[in-house]
Amino acid sequence: MISVTRVNHTADIGLQITASNLEELFKAAAVELFRLICTADDALMEKEEHTLSVEGNDLEELLVNWLSELNFLFQTEQILVAEIAALVINGTLLHAKFSADRFNPQRHTIHTDIKAVTYHELYVRPTQIGWEAQVIFDV
Questions:
Q1: How far apart are CA 126 and CA 19, in angstroms?
Q2: Residues 29-61, buried b or exposed e (16+ Cβ, 10 A)?
Q3: CA dihedral in degrees (109, 82, 50, 17; nearest 10)?
Q4: pLDDT by residue (tens digit) across 21-75?
Q5: Which helix (H) or strand (E) element contains residue 61?
Q6: Domain residues for 24?
Q7: Torsion, CA 92, CA 17, CA 137, CA 67, rounded to 10
Q8: Where would you tag: which of 13, 18, 38, 120 has the fewest CB atoms within 10 A of its CB?
Q9: 134 CB contacts (<8 Å, ≥6 apart)?
Q10: How would you class 10 by CB atoms within 10 Å of its CB: exposed for 0-12, middle for 13-18, buried for 19 or more?
């Protein structure tokens, strides 16, 4: 089970995410990043296949690097993640395969411009029923 709550923060926006395992937590964080960027009713057509690998010194840095790379892909190549087909975390290394659409102003509406993924109030931790994380975005 995945749960996501938006966190209001001065000049920023954040997410609190819970999931049954670490991989689902990181998938949910990516999906929610793109829900913040593009309105939820936008049609993503899953045209292109991509792979991405990131690493960090710990799970918090891994989450920041993962979301930062996805945001960078949107900012530089207009890539909108449609579906994450596979995501594997091995220690502090993440490998993902995902399908994506390219931003098209005739089909998509940008809702939020994410400037950066921050370390402010960031955490990734196990719970009794799975994992939880909080991440704040500079908008």
A1: 10
A2: bbbbbbbbbbeeebebeeeeebebebebeebbb
A3: 100
A4: 999 999 999 999 998 998 645 566 668 899 999 999 999 999 999 999 999 999 9
A5: helix 59-77
A6: 3-138
A7: 40
A8: 120
A9: 7, 14, 15, 16, 17, 121, 122, 123
A10: exposed
CA distances from 43 to 30, 38, 51, 82, 105 (A): 17, 10, 21, 9, 11
Q: What is the CATH number of the domain that holds 39?
A: 3.55.10.10
Type of residue at 109: T
Mean pLDDT along residues 70-91: 95
| Domains contained in the chain, number | 1
Cα 37 off chain centre by? 10
Residue type, 37: I
